[in-house]
Amino acid sequence: MNFGQAIEELKMGKKVARAGWNGKGMWLTYVLAWSYNPSGSVASLGLEKLPWIGMKTADDKFVPWLASQTDMLAEDWEVVE
Q: What is the value of pTM for the model shown?
């Protein structure tokens, strides 16, 4: 599937990954605004939390993710368990 389709799957609560990624076990998930609590008081600053995309890395970490142009143009996106 393409990147747009992958984003729609993320919004439905599914995990996605690219078949072409070298790292084993890597995937993306949609992180809802209410499901994380950044250090410091965001609410007391009058800031609204927004959803974001996070990546489970090959070395079992979880980090914010940004798409490369290659990722955005790829057609090898797939839903993963």
A: 0.86
